[in-house]
Amino acid sequence: MFKTILIxxxxxxxxxxxxxxxxxxxxxHTDYAYYCDDALTKIKIALRNQQPFELLVTDLFFEEDQQxxxxxxxxxxxxxxxxxxxxxxxxxxxxEHRAAVIDRLFKELHISGYVRKARYDAQELKxxxxxxxxxxxxxxxxxxxxxxxxxxxxxxxxxxxxxSLLSGGIHQKDIPVHLQQKNLHPSGLSSVEKRLGHIKxxxxxxxxxxxxxxxxxxxxx
Length: 221
Prior knowledge:
Layout: E1 4-8, H1 12-25, E2 29-33, H2 36-48, E3 55-58, H3 74-84, E4 89-94, H4 99-108, E5 113-116, H5 121-133, H6 141-150, H7 157-167, H8 175-181, H9 189-203, H10 208-218
Helix pairs in contact: 1-5, 2-3, 4-6, 7-10
């Protein structure tokens, strides 16, 4: 199991949950940071002392307070940590549930694993750490299913714009004007209707409201 782990988490209750999990796994050394800037400083010091952390466990969301920060959240911390220590394994432990957002963390920030804060998250944390220790990614099964469903249709810029306009309260008959203003084509009403019908058919929806809710849940809009 990992010997040195850094936890970046600003909620004490979540930090306690992670700490208990690490104790159960027999992790020898853990350090904690309640701010992203502090976490990055600890990574720098550990590298300078030639005792680098093997794993960073971080949340995505950190509440702002009177202490000003350069790094404004978990994503910024992950990117900065990757630059300092490219081989560092990074496990995200967060309440974020949108599949598109989480999938992007794997594809763009190259995180090693993801665990959602929810019921039974302590057990999944253990599983994730064991998986990462074996040099494998922890990509939760429910997330794989959600991403697979999302990939049933490849959303274009035009698709996202149309759905975003609907979500913002724009009537379908008025969408062509907005598309023309954005220089997006095809922008005719019949084209908009056909495009929406095609997307809904691919995803198994019958109503625009269902499509909008799905896109919000997936982080597409």
